[in-house]
Specification:
The complex is a heterodimer of chains A (about 400) and B (about 350). Chain A has about 400 residues and is of the alpha/beta class. In chain A, the strands form four sheets. A seven-stranded mixed β-sheet of chain A has the order 2-8-7-6-5-3-4, sandwiched between helices. A four-stranded antiparallel β-sheet of chain A has the order 11-12-15-14, with helices on one face. A two-stranded parallel sheet of chain A has the order 1-13. The radius of gyration of chain A is 22 Å and the shape is globular. Chain A starts with a helix and ends with a helix. With about 350 residues, chain B is of the alpha+beta class. The longest helix of chain B is centred in the N-terminal third of the chain and has 39 residues. Chain B is elongated and about 90 Å long. Classes of the chains: A alpha/beta (about 400), B alpha+beta (about 350).
Chain lengths: ~400, ~350
C-alpha cells in the first residue's frame, strides 16, 4: 500500500482530534489502535502465565509469545527465533549483556563518546570488577581501530544517536571490530523503529532495541544475540522460567532465550509488540525512513533561517528523523514549554540522557524534534510558525 | 517568587490529592533554594511561567513577551499583596472574635464574616476615641443585687443600642448564678451624645437637634451617629424617672425587651403605664432638669472612662466592651474568686 501519513494518523487515538503535534518519538512513540486492542485482548481473554500452564489460557499465551518472537525475528532479520530475547527495554538488554558477558579484570569495553546513559553507565559499573571503559569519537572508525587493543573484549555503540540523529556506519564499524576479533553490541533503539535492519547482513553479535519506540507497549524490548554470541552469556538474572530442572544445590538452565527471561514476563506487552511490529511491516520501514528524511529537510530549511540557531549533528540527510537545535541565549526548556503551551507541540528539551557529551562541551542542552510515520508536512509547518512566535517572545 | 506563589496554591491542592504532592515538593525545594539565595533548579518556575504566557504566544506575542520577562516582578507584587491581604484578614478575624465585628471596635463598614451584622455586640460612638480612661464609680445609680455584694459590675449602656438591649437577658442570667456575690449598677451612656443637652437647649418632648459634639471627632461622623441614636437621652431620663418612683429595673427591662428602641415621649409614657404609681409625675419628670443633670453626669463619667461603645462593663477595674456570655461570666467568676475571704 502507498505511504499516507494522513491515513495512518487515524490509527493513533491521541492524534485523531488534530490538537496534538507529537515530535517526541525518540523518547516514546504513540501506539496504534491495533496494539491497544491486542493488549486489551490479553487482559480480557487470556490473562494467564506463559511457558508453565497447560490449560487453554496458558497455551494461548504460549502461542502468542511464539508469534511475537517470530515477528521480532523478522523485524531484525535474525536467523532463528532462539536468537531473540524479550527484555523490558534497550537499557535492560544492554545491562543483560554487560552483566552476562564473560569479562575478566583488565578487559576493556569500547563505546563512542556520544552514548545514551544506557550504553555508558553499565560499563562504568563494571569497573568495580576491574573491567575498564574506553570512549572514542562518535563515528570515527580510525579512532575505533586504534582503540582496539588486545584487552578490548566488546565494542558497544549506538547505531543512531538519540541526541542528534547522527548514525554510524555499522558495516564498517563491525568489520573493524571483528577484524580485531572483538564482538559488537549495537544500541539500535533509535534505528530499529525507523529503518530496515538485517542483523545477518550486518553480522552484528548483539543488538538491543525498545518496543515503546516502535509503536509497542511500554516495558518491552528486544535483545538479539547471534546464536554463538548468546551462548557465551552467563545468565545473571535467574529464577522461574530459566531452568529445566533444579535441586537444592544445582540448576540446569534451558538452552533457548528463555534462560535470560527470568520470572513471569510482560505478556500483554509482548503480545502488543508483535502487533506493533506487524504494523510497521505493513507500512514499511523504508517508506518510514524516506518520509522522515523529507520532513527533516523541511525542518532544516525552516531552522536555517534563524541567525542565532545552532543545529547539532550531521547534515539533515544523515540524521534520520532527529533534529537537535538551540538558540543563542535562549533557555531550551523555555522553548519546549512554550511550544507545548502555545501550540500543542510536544518536543523534548535538555540533555536527552547524554549528559557526558554535554558536560564535555559545556553545552546546556538542546531542543530535540524527533519525527515518525504519523507526522506530516503541515505539522512541521505549524511547528515552524509556532517556533517563530516563541522565538519572538524569548529573544 | 513564582515558586512561592506555586507553593501557596499547591500546598492546598496537595492536601486533597496525591497528584499535586510531587509538584508541592518541588515548590518547597524551589522556595528553600531561593531563600538560601540559590537558583531554583527544579524547573517549576519555568513551567509556571510557561503556563501563564504560553496561551498568549500565538495570539498576543507582545503581551506574552512582556509577561515572560516581567512575571517574576509581577509575582513579587502579587505576593506582597497577598501578604498584606492575609495580614488584614488576620486582623479582621481577631476583631470578629474579640468584638463580633471584623472592622474593629468602632468599625462601621461591611464585615465579610458577618454580612448581616448580627454578630456585632456593641454600638460604637467615636472612632478611635479612647477618653481619659478613668475608672468610674457607681455614680449613685440604681443597683441590682445585694448592696454589700463582694463584686460590683458597672454597666454603661444606651437604650437605642440594640446590643445593650440584647445583652440584658444575658446579664440577668449571669447575675442569677451568683445572686449573693454580685451587684449590677447601670449607668447611662446615651449614644445621641446627650441630644439636646449638648447645647444647653431646653429639654422638651420635641425632636432633638444634631449639633456638633463636644467630644473629639469629625462633626459629620458624629452627626450621623447622633441621628441614628436620637432619643437615647430621653429614654435614659425616662428610666431614671421610673426609678424615682421605685421602678427603675422594671422599666429598664421594658425598655430593653423590645426589638426596637423606644424614644418618643408618648411611647415612653405608654411604656410606664401600669408600672409607675403616678403617670402624670412620670410625664413631667421627662423634662426635669435634675434628671437631665444625672444622665449628663453619667455620660461624662463614661467619656472620662474612655468608653467608645455600648454596652461596656467594668468589673474589678477591667473594662469589657460588648463581651460574650462566656467572657462576662469568666470575668465575674474571677472577680468573685479574688474577693472571696
Amino acid at each position: 500500500m502507498s505511504f499516507d501519513p494522513y491515513r495512518l494518523r487515524q490509527d493513533f487515538p491521541p492524534l485523531r482530534d488534530g490538537r496534538l503535534v507529537y515530535f517526541d518519538n525518540a523518547c516514546m512513540a504513540l501506539r496504534p489502535q491495533a496494539v491497544i486492542d491486542a493488549v486489551t485482548e490479553y487482559y480480557r481473554d487470556y490473562p494467564a502465565c506463559g511457558e508453565r500452564s497447560l490449560h487453554r489460557l496458558g497455551r494461548r499465551v504460549d502461542e502468542e509469545v511464539s508469534l511475537a518472537r517470530e515477528a521480532a525475528r523478522r523485524l531484525l532479520g535474525a536467523k532463528r527465533v532462539e536468537e531473540i530475547v524479550f527484555t523490558q527495554n534497550t537499557t535492560h538488554a544492554i545491562n543483560l549483556v554487560a552483566h552476562s558477558f564473560p569479562f575478566v579484570a583488565g578487559d576493556i569495553v569500547v563505546t563512542s563518546d556520544q552514548e545514551h546513559n544506557s550504553n555508558l553507565l553499565p560499563w562504568q559499573q563494571l569497573s568495580r570488577g576491574g573491567v575498564m571503559h574506553r570512549a572514542v569519537p562518535f563515528g570515527d572508525l580510525g579512532a575505533l581501530k586504534a582503540a582496539l587493543t588486545p584487552e578490548v573484549k566488546l565494542v558497544s555503540m549506538a547505531l543512531r544517536s538519540n541526541l542528534d540523529g547522527a548514525t554510524i556506519e555499522p558495516e564498517q564499524t563491525i568489520a573493524v571490530a571483528h577484524g580485531a576479533g572483538v564482538p559488537v553490541l549495537l544500541d539500535a533503539a533509535q534505528a530499529a523503529p525507523h529503518q530496515a535492519l538485517d542483523v545477518r547482513a550486518l553480522g552484528v553479535d548483539y543488538l538491543a532495541c525498545s518496543g515503546h519506540k516502535m509503536l509497542g507497549p511500554s516495558g518491552t524490548g528486544l535483545l538479539y544475540g547471534k546464536h554463538e554470541a548468546l551462548a557465551r552469556l552467563r545468565p545473571t538474572l535467574v529464577g522461574g522460567g530459566t531452568v529445566e530442572d533444579s535441586t537444592l544445590e544445582t540448576a540446569r538452565y534451558v538452552e533457548g532465550p528463555q534462560r535470560f527471561e527470568a520470572g513471569l514476563q510482560n505478556y500483554a506487552g509482548i503480545v502488543g509488540l508483535r502487533h506493533a511490529i506487524e504494523y510497521l511491516e505493513r507500512v514499511g520501514r523504508d517508506e518510514i525512513h524516506a518520509h522522515e528524511r523529507r520532513l527533516t529537510r523541511q525542518l532544516q530549511e525552516g531552522l536555517e533561517r534563524y541567525a542565532d540557531v545552532t543545529i547539532f549533528g550531521p547534515p539533515a540527510e544523515r540524521r534520520g528523523g532527529i533534529t537537535s537545535f538551540a538558540f543563542a541565549g535562549i533557555n531550551v526548556h523555555d522553548v519546549c514549554l512554550l511550544l507545548d503551551q502555545s501550540a500543542g507541540i510536544a518536543v523534548r528539551s535538555g540533555r536527552h540522557c547524554v549528559h557526558s557529551w554535554f558536560n564535555a562541551r559545556g553545552i546546556e542542552g538542546t531542543v530535540r524534534v524527533s519525527l515518525y510515520l504519523y507526522n506530516t508536512e503541515e505539522e512541521v509547518a505549524w511547528f515552524l510558525g509556532a517556533l517563530a512566535k516563541v522565538h519572538e517572545v524569548l529573544v | 517568587m513564582l515558586c512561592l506563589l506555586g507553593l501557596l496554591v499547591l500546598a492546598v491542592l496537595a492536601v486533597f490529592s496525591a497528584r499535586y504532592r510531587p509538584l508541592a515538593r518541588e515548590a518547597v525545594a524551589c522556595v528553600f533554594r531561593r531563600v538560601t539565595l540559590r537558583k531554583c533548579t527544579t524547573g517549576l518556575d519555568q513551567r509556571l511561567k510557561a503556563m501563564v504566557t504560553g496561551p498568549l504566544v500565538m495570539s498576543h506575542p507582545g503581551l506574552a513577551r512582556f509577561l515572560h520577562r516581567h512575571l517574576e516582578s509581577l509575582a513579587w507584587a502579587f505576593v506582597v499583596l497577598v501578604l498584606a491581604v492575609t495580614a488584614n484578614l488576620g486582623v479582621g478575624f481577631y476583631n470578629f472574635y474579640r468584638y463580633g465585628n471584623c472592622n474593629g471596635p468602632a468599625g462601621e463598614g461591611f464585615c465579610v464574616f458577618d454580612p448581616s451584622g448580627r454578630h456585632s455586640r456593641y454600638s460604637g460612638i467615636i472612632t478611635g476615641y479612647r477618653g481619659e480612661t478613668v475608672l468610674p464609680d457607681d455614680g449613685g445609680n440604681p443597683s441590682f443585687g445585694p448592696v454589700g455584694a463582694r463584686v460590683s459590675i458597672i454597666e454603661f449602656g444606651s437604650y437605642t443600642c440594640a446590643y445593650t438591649r440584647a445583652s440584658e437577658p444575658m446579664v440577668r442570667e449571669l447575675l442569677a448564678r451568683q445572686p449573693k456575690e454580685v451587684r449590677l449598677v447601670y449607668r447611662h451612656f446615651p449614644l445621641d451624645g446627650l441630644g439636646a443637652l449638648r447645647t444647653g437647649a431646653a429639654l422638651t418632648c420635641e425632636a432633638s437637634s444634631s449639633e456638633p459634639s463636644p467630644l473629639t471627632g469629625t462633626p459629620s461622623a458624629h452627626a450621623r451617629q447622633y441621628e441614628e441614636h436620637a432619643g437615647a437621652t430621653r429614654a435614659a431620663i425616662a428610666a431614671d424617672c421610673a426609678g424615682a418612683q421605685g421602678k427603675f429595673w422594671e422599666y429598664h427591662r421594658r425598655l430593653t425587651a423590645g426589638p426596637d428602641a423606644l424614644t418618643s415621649c408618648a411611647g415612653l409614657i405608654e411604656l410606664a403605664r401600669g408600672l409607675v404609681a403616678d403617670e402624670e409625675a412620670f410625664a413631667r419628670c421627662l423634662e426635669n432638669s435634675a434628671m437631665r443633670a444625672h444622665v449628663e453626669r453619667d455620660f461624662h463619667d463614661g467619656v472620662r472612662a474612655g468608653i467608645y461603645g455600648t454596652p461596656t462593663f467594668f468589673i474589678d477595674g477591667m473594662a469589657l466592651v460588648a463581651p460574650s456570655s462566656d467572657e462576662l461570666g469568666d470575668a465575674i467568676d474571677r472577680a468573685v474568686a479574688s474577693h472571696r475571704p
